[in-house]
């Protein structure tokens, strides 16, 4: 990370211009999932999860993503921008069997 950048706090928000896109940032862990404040009705419209600004995903984060994928059925949830440790964690946990990485 360049010296002029500070780590971004974890968070999740629907894209203001495209409510079918959920933007995540920071570490998606038990604390981020517990602090999630989006209503189920809002999440049911999500088709894409933007993970460009995510550095880490733990089992709680994976559980959130899998739960979200079940909620949007029959559509398949697509993850975009997954990289580094976050990507490795999801592959190791077998998420590629359920989610489009």
Note down, in words, how this protein is organized.
This protein has 101 residues and is of the alpha/beta class. Helix content is 31%, strand content 25%. Strands 1-2-3-4 form a 4-stranded mixed beta sheet. Strand 3 (48-57), helix 3 (59-71) and strand 4 (78-80) form a beta-alpha-beta unit.
Outline of this structure?
This protein is of the alpha/beta class and 101 residues long. It has helices at residues 30-34, 40-43, 59-71, 84-92, and strands at residues 11-14, 21-28, 48-57, 78-80.
Q: Keyphrases for this structure?
A:
alpha/beta, globular, disordered N terminus
End-to-end distance: 24 Å
Q: Let me know the number of strands.
A: 4
The main sheet orders its strands as 1-2-3-4
Give the overall shape: globular
**Could you state the order of secondary-structure elements as H and E?**
EEHHEHEH
Q: Classify the helix fraction into a percent range.
A: 25-40%
Mean pLDDT: 88
Poorly predicted runs of 5 or more residues: 1-7
Structural class: alpha/beta
Radius of gyration: 13 Å
Strand portion: 15-25%
Query: What's the story with the biggest beta sheet?
Result: 4 strands, mixed
| Total helical elements | 4
Secondary-structure map:
Layout: E1 11-14, E2 21-28, H1 30-34, H2 40-43, E3 48-57, H3 59-71, E4 78-80, H4 84-92
Parallel strand pairs: 2-3, 3-4
Antiparallel strand pairs: 1-2
